[in-house]
């Protein structure tokens, strides 16, 4: 498995990680202007052929690939080749970056100003930078940062500029181009723009892939893009998108370069700038279109404290060594390499496996702040109290004690936790509460989520004047924001948590039963969490290993036994996944109860949202988790059902219709709820 | 023919001999004539040609038993640390090569202090006693065909020149070797030997010049039968020359330089000049699908052969006429060519011959980088105006060639060299660490050669190439013959290496060169080789649809417990890389046993089945049991 090369789970405790340096510290003590104007002489790729941005464009237009596709398009459409060429050159014009050092210097100056007010520190692992520099010199390099904020790519270029590393060219979504001036600024700082969808457009695809490959092969600059395709609104890593990864691996697979090095970069924000924006978006409160004036308005955030950022440059991964034994490169021997072809099956699964492995490598090196643990605990308490009908928070002391317990557990699971050990835990907890004061309320030493109406401190007056739906939504904003912090830690716990849930839902303690149940849940949630395809057994073993190691489980020949002290761990772990479980169930119920014959994919989210709102308002006891309102969760569950064949798409008159296999959906729902043994569900799947 | 023109021809022949044909300086018989020699075994005692054999039965009398080439010729570092090339046979012989030591130490991290000398003589106790098939031996005796089971004779025929083979010999290690060596004198002798072999079920391994680099001559260790090495070296006569059709009928044991020498005496040549032509034999060329340096004019062996006679266990296979081309089903020559001794012994060949060229001229072009050089070669191939030979060396090889410059006698030449260097690097701005050089050889009418030369230089100029003189070109070709001797020098100082080749479509040339070289360096690093290896290549042949690429690879093995194994792993990886980059398993070295594992993917299952069924029909008892190819 490609995954093995990237990620191997022996003892996660033994994971070696580099130390961080704060790059803002120096900025605070020296002239920003001098910094912006300093001498910048990065090390370049040893095989670099010096060329300018405009030379790049003509190289692309003159490439064999383009010639071929232009002729093909002209034959198919009947347009003259010259017209197609012109079209091509216009597309390229729209796409291409024109990296200019002066613009980068401008950003270096302004960003320094902004960063210094927004953040306490920006910490970078310098060893990672060294490795990157080495890699850039030896091979074409692809940078793969995680994507949680618009800031990510500016931040990346900023850091690379600071360390005198070659500046990357960055694949950016076309939506930025909507922003006057800013779009051009970004272009001049190395961004190139891709349309969000260009499915069947051969010419566009050819131009785009050739453009990226040309930059990569010639060592023009490191190529940077977001494997997740878009910003994760939930702070969970997204299922990787394969298009660009396919493109950057292609030159290696076709032998056009000796190797390509891929560098996963993990950017962790203590507080994400877009925090509540994301929650609103997930709840269907429409997002403002990217615009310059919008950005300008957003400057009010400059007065807030967003804590620190940690950027971890991971180990460069050689595509050559990843592909060793998995891809037969001879498959390109019989057709000229410039003729576009669908990649073979081995390549498709290789790229897919690698993508998952790389996302996991990003997750691995995400720095977790104490708040992430605190938020997880607070959310669970919130839901438990809500179920019990209580409105009281948790005592600060108890929260601290639990946080310390969770700290130790997560460390044992290999989390990259930044918990300042020299500070008393109570201070650590209260300082993270302070930083996130928008999300929590501390009242008489009791802590709870700030879900009471924001109008005032839980006064009875304005409470009644707000429509129940609005109140629901504003509560949900807080819960979803909080959940996004909990989600940061999900990759640490997801495997043991799936096992905990499996033990909970399995009909017996038989090992095989538990495994079946685990494998069912894992399969069900594989659009939700980063679970490498085909690694069920591996994941199961890892989960068992961790739970046994921490004394929560014991294995006999046939059975899985929960130990005395294991119960609380398992309860914590499985309730971590409860919101997801309930979310999938409720989507199933919606499909069984309310899906009409003419439901289209577009209508799905609004319809399911309406359904859930109705139930939340009518019967808050039954639907405990407001997270089920998250469109991300709803989309993922639909994707899972489509993948499992419980729902399928059918060509309608205008749009594709969603068709529901109600028997199967029903049985999936019951199995999720533990009402049906897993085998039955497996049969139903067939 | 007028006596005048015949003396003319002889004059040209002598001139040519000086230039090519192995750069031998030995005396040339001036009274030689075209011979129609009869087979000695048929009782003729007046065979004049028997006096002039280049290769005696006891090869060890003139050739090294554990290295390349002649006993009297080798590189060594003298007391002053200067490299010297001994003997009198080559242009470079007797010369001092001042820059070699520096290059050698710098490139490999080798040191004059760390020597790894070879075992001087073969201890016969290292050789297993022969497994003799008594009945076969008795009948063989009665035929009068000479044979031997002397240890030295046997060892000499148990190997080719792969690194592992020579390395083992230098350490005095000998594996399974043939049990008997026989020296047939003519086609009929071979027929008798093959008949006897079939009758007594002994294994026959044909042996020509012994220059194989594919483990083709290695005796399969699992072979339990008596192994007979059939040495064709004594079958070395030109049986007739047909001047009307420009063909010569030649016994297959003749070695390249002898064939050219004899034909030159009559004013002809074959033009087939593989790098091994001093020692490799006509039969060997046919059996491996050899390629010659000047194939652009004369063609490769498959273009040169008009008629072949091969003795197989099923009898003799040959065509019934000597026609230039036939449409009679699959060409049976293509079962023979490349059969690598698995089907039978090639005994006689009719080859095309050409009048000797009137004029020869070397040349060279310097390019700013390898990419430009390849682009130029591609253009030359496209315009189909390749000279007799055109080769492009990469930067490392260019430097290597430079290190092999002999000491210059006059201040004037060294001044000129300095000036040239200044012009190219300073005035033209070529980066000395990127530039590369193409060597050229033109042949033909004087006028046409000059015209042709201009055409090629004009193309080169379009790719930034600068003419760099005849000397550089000539030295480039001379190195072809001495490079094999250099490996022995390296092995005296902990450096081992080898060359290997492939052919590849034009669009892949640059990629394959880059990737294979990089793969070699990476593999060496991974395998614990202390010092970065020499990893270099050159494009040696151009075709309409692609090129032939040669890789050279050598490293310092100090600190490695099993250097040969490391070497083999790296070579294996390099071959995988070649195949992954669209290169062929071999352009002309053949498959042997070294590259057998990749045959199936190279020619497909059905292809393998075809070859196997031919083998099964022709040689069901696996008499020709060298187990090459399939």
TrEMBL record, chain B:
Residues that, per the record, bind substrate: 487
Record's subcellular location: Peroxisome membrane
Keywords for the protein's UniProt record, in alphabetical order: Acetylation, FAD, Flavoprotein, Lipid biosynthesis, Lipid metabolism, Membrane, Peroxisome, Phosphoprotein, Transferase, Transit peptide
GO molecular function terms attached to this record: alkylglycerone-phosphate synthase activity; FAD binding
GO terms for cellular component: peroxisomal membrane
Keyword DNA repair: no
Active site, per annotation: 550
Domain FAD-binding PCMH-type positions: 174-356
Protein name (record): Alkylglycerone-phosphate synthase
């Amino acid at each position: 498995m490609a995954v093995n090369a990237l990620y191997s789970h022996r003892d996660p405790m033994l994971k070696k990680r580099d130390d961080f340096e704060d790059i803002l510290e120096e900025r605070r003590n020296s002239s920003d202007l001098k910094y912006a104007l300093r001498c910048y002489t990065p090390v370049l790729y040893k095989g670099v052929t010096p060329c300018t941005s405009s030379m790049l464009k003509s190289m692309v237009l003159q490439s064999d690939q383009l010639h071929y596709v232009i002729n093909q398009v002209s034959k198919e459409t009947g347009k003259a080749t010259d017209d197609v060429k012109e079209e091509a050159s216009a597309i390229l014009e729209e796409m291409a970056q024109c990296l200019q050092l002066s613009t980068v210097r401008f950003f270096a100056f302004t960003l320094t100003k902004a960063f210094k007010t927004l953040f306490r520190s920006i910490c970078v692992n310098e060893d990672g930078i060294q490795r990157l520099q080495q890699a850039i010199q030896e091979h074409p390099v692809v940078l793969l940062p995680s994507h949680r904020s618009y800031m990510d790519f500016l931040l990346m270029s900023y850091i690379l500029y600071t360390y005198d590393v070659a500046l990357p060219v960055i694949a950016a979504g076309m939506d930025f181009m909507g922003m006057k001036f800013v779009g051009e600024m970004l272009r001049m700082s190395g961004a190139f723009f891709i349309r969000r969808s260009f499915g069947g457009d051969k010419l566009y695809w050819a131009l785009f892939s050739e453009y990226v490959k040309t930059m990569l092969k010639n060592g023009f600059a490191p190529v940077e893009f977001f494997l997740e395709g878009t910003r994760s609104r939930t702070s969970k890593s997204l299922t990787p998108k394969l298009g660009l990864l396919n493109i950057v691996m292609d030159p290696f697979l076709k032998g056009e370069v000796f190797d390509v090095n891929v560098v996963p970069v993990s950017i962790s924000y203590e507080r994400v700038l877009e925090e509540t924006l994301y929650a609103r978006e997930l709840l269907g409160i429409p997002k403002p279109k990217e615009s310059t004036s919008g950005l300008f308005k957003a400057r009010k955030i400059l007065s807030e404290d967003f804590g620190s950022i940690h950027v971890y440059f991971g180990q460069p991964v050689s595509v050559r060594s990843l592909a060793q034994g998995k891809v037969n490169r001879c498959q390109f021997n019989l057709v000229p390499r410039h003729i576009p072809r669908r990649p073979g099956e081995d390549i498709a699964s290789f790229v897919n496996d690698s993508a998952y492995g790389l996302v996991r490598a990003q997750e691995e090196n995400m720095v977790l702040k104490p708040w992430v643990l605190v938020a997880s605990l607070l959310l669970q308490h919130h839901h438990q109290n809500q179920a019990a009908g209580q409105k009281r928070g948790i005592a600060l002391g108890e929260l601290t004690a639990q946080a310390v317990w969770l700290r130790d557990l997560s460390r044992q699971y290999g989390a990259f936790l930044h918990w300042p050990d020299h500070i008393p835990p109570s201070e650590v907890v209260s300082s993270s509460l302070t930083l996130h004061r928008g999300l929590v309320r501390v009242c008489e030493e009791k802590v709870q989520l700030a879900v009471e109406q924001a109008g005032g401190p839980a006064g009875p007056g304005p409470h009644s004047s707000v429509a129940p739906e609005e109140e629901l939504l504003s509560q949900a904003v807080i819960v979803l924001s909080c959940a996004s912090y909990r989600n940061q830690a999900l990759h640490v716990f997801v495997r043991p948590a799936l096992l905990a849930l499996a033990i909970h839902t399995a009909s017996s303690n038989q090992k095989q039963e538990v495994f079946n149940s685990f494998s069912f849940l894992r399969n069900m949630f594989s659009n939700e969490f980063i679970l490498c395809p085909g690694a069920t057994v591996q994941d199961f073993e890892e989960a068992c290993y961790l739970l046994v190691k921490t004394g929560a489980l014991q294995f006999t020949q046939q059975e899985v036994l929960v130990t005395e002290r294991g119960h609380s761990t398992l309860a914590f772990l499985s309730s971590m996944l409860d919101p997801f479980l309930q979310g999938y169930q409720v989507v199933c119920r919606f499909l069984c109860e309310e899906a009409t014959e003419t439901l289209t994919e577009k209508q799905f989210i609004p319809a399911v949202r309406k359904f859930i709102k109705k139930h939340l308002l009518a019967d808050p006891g039954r639907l405990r988790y407001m997270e089920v309102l998250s469109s991300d969760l709803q989309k993922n569950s639909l994707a899972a059902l489509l993948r499992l064949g419980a729902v399928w798409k059918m060509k309608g008159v205008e749009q594709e219709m969603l068709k529901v296999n109600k028997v199967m959906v029903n049985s999936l729902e019951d199995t999720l709820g533990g009402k049906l043994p897993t085998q039955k569900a497996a049969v139903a799947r067939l | 023919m007028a006596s005048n023109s015949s003396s003319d021809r002889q004059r040209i022949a002598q001139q040519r001999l000086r230039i090519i044909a192995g750069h031998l300086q030995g005396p040339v018989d001036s009274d030689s004539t075209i011979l129609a020699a009869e087979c000695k075994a048929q009782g003729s005692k007046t065979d004049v040609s028997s006096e002039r054999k280049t290769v005696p039965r006891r090869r060890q009398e003139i050739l090294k038993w554990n290295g390349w080439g002649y006993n009297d010729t080798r590189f060594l570092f003298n007391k002053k640390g200067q490299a010297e090339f001994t003997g009198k046979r080559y242009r470079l012989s007797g010369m001092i090569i001042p820059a070699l030591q520096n290059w050698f130490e710098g490139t490999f991290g080798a040191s004059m202090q760390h020597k790894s000398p070879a075992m001087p003589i073969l201890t016969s106790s290292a050789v297993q006693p022969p497994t003799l098939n008594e009945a076969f031996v008795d009948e063989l005796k009665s035929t009068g065909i000479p044979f031997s089971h002397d240890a030295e004779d046997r060892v000499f025929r148990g190997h080719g020149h792969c690194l592992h083979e020579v390395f083992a010999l230098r350490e005095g290690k000998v594996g399974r070797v043939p049990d008997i060596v026989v020296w047939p004198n003519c086609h009929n002798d071979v027929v008798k030997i093959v008949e006897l072999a079939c009758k007594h079920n002994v294994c026959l391994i044909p042996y020509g010049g012994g220059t194989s680099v594919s483990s083709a001559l290695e005796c399969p260790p699992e072979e339990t039968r008596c192994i007979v090495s059939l040495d064709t070296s004594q079958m070395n006569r030109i049986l007739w020359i047909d001047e009307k059709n420009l063909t010569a009928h030649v016994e297959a044991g003749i070695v390249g330089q002898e064939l050219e020498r004899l034909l030159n005496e009559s004013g002809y040549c074959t033009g087939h000049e593989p790098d091994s032509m001093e020692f490799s034999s006509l039969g060997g060329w046919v059996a491996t699908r050899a390629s010659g340096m000047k194939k652009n004019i004369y063609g490769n062996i498959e273009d040169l052969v008009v008629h072949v006679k091969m003795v197989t266990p099923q009898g003799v296979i040959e065509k019934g006429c000597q026609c230039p081309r036939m449409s009679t089903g699959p060409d049976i020559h293509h079962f023979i060519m490349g059969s690598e001794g698995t089907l039978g012994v090639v005994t006689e060949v009719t080859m095309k011959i050409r009048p000797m060229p009137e004029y020869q001229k070397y040349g060279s072009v310097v390019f700013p980088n390898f990419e430009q050089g390849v682009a130029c070669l591609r253009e030359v191939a496209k315009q189909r105006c390749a000279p007799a030979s055109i080769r492009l060396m990469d930067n490392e090889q260019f430097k290597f060639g430079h290190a092999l410059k002999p000491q210059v006698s006059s201040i004037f030449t060294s001044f000129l060299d300095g000036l040239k260097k200044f012009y190219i690097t300073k005035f033209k701005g070529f980066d000395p660490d990127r530039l590369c050089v193409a060597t050229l050889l033109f042949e033909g009418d004087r006028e046409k050669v000059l015209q042709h030369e201009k055409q090629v230089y004009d193309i080169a100029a379009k790719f930034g190439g600068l003419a760099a003189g005849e000397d550089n070109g000539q030295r480039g070709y001379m190195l072809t013959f001495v490079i094999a001797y250099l490996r022995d020098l390296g092995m005296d100082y902990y450096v081992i290496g080898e060359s290997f080749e492939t052919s590849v479509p034009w669009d892949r040339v640059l990629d394959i060169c880059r990737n294979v070289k990089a793969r070699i360096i990476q593999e060496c690093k991974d395998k614990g080789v202390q010092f970065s290896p020499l990893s270099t290549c050159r494009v040696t042949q151009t075709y309409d649809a692609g090129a032939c690429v040669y890789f050279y690879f050598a490293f310092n093995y100090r600190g490695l417990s099993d250097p040969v194994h490391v070497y083999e792993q790296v070579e294996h990886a390099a071959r995988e890389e070649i195949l992954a980059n669209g290169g062929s398993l071999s352009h002309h070295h053949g498959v042997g046993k070294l590259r057998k594992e990749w045959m199936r993917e190279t020619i497909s299952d059905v292809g393998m089945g075809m070859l196997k069924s031919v083998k099964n029909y022709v040689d069901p008892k696996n008499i020709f049991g060298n187990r090459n190819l399939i």
